[in-house]
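Example A, followed by Example B.
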Amino acid sequence: MPGRLTTVDGLWSCKRALSAAYGDLDLVAPSDPESWRGSLQVLRLGTLQVATEESDPVRVVRTPRAAATDGRDHMFARLQLDGRARLSQDGRSADLYPGVLAFYDASRPFTLVLPERQRARVLMVPRPSLRLGEAEIRRVTAKVIGNAPEGPAAFLLPLLSGLAQEIGTVAPAAREELARAVADLLATLAADRLAPTEPPGAQEATLFDRVKATIETRLSEPELSPQALADAHGVSLRYLHKLFHEHDTTVGGWIRRRRLESCRAELARPTAADRTIAAVAARWGFVSPTHFSHAFRKAYGMPPAQYRAQRPDD
């Protein structure tokens, strides 16, 4: 896609480039800021802006102060192309993976956690383009669009992705018309996400899957708890426990099992042989190496050091 391409070396250069394109942002890298790499390609077509970004892992924050002072009030539509992202706004969190989209609002604080190398296309449109009231805008932010195999999003998202990718290659006279088509598609996707179309019982099943997806993206966070998950998904702690009980498990038990399975998989990989057992445990959210060793032995019948030495194939 033609447009201004900025290859970013170092976190501070990236902060300047992203803030110029999106609005004032704070960035926090999990590793050396100077070794961080990314790129940003921006194409402006009247009121529509299409950005293609690629980056190393990073945490992107739009603070309340930035949202209140820099005057940006456009809407973002983030279409994840590669890697994962976790978007939080308005008390909700959306776990994004390739092929899905989520809206977020520049006029209010938000957080994007990008835990791995990722690539995304970010469409920016004025708020009126979505044809939603303020209350409806707040209801549509940080919700995954495109995670169902059926419905309007299943065929509209590929169309939107294709238009966004090709819009810069068409003749200038046709770009304005295509830009309007992109805005119309975004408005349709937003309206469809607000429609109560789920059949009875589907909401609980979908919520269970969303919570499990959130757990997968947050396994490395020692502070991950049932209360944090309930808050992230806008439900009561009691309801969350009931949901997991209906699936014959508990929230804490599911988190612990997935952490142990992730540790076991890493300990079995020859490429992780130089990583200490304590480092593996910490990477997957275990604070105490002693507690990890006890839990691992209880789950798999041997201590982690013995398991690593055997390097089982299963």
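Example B, a separate protein, is given below in the same form.
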Amino acid sequence: MAEQVAEAAAGSHVVKALNLCHVDVWRMTPPEFGGRALTVPICGDDPGALAAVRSLITDLGCVPVEGGGLDRAGLLEATAAFAIGLLLQGADPRSMFPPIEYAAGPPSR
């Protein structure tokens, strides 16, 4: 979708971001959960547009994370649909991913 928008609006600077959360999450100041700031993935090809969106996300009190170019925006859209579907079933999508210290198995003792 983001690539299609960019193609339809020649000369535009398209960035895919801010689509994983309900509107009420964006009304939180800042969006924090248990002291942890919300991470916001972004996809885009234009460095200036990416910088502007990173700044906006930071101003919201969130942490921007690069997701790749617009060619990866569809993955972000699919992730949103998948995660929201899990949430609506009562599942916690975070439980699919271990904490970073366990990403490669249990930490060494």
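On Example B: The CA atoms of residues 17 and 42 lie 5 Å apart.
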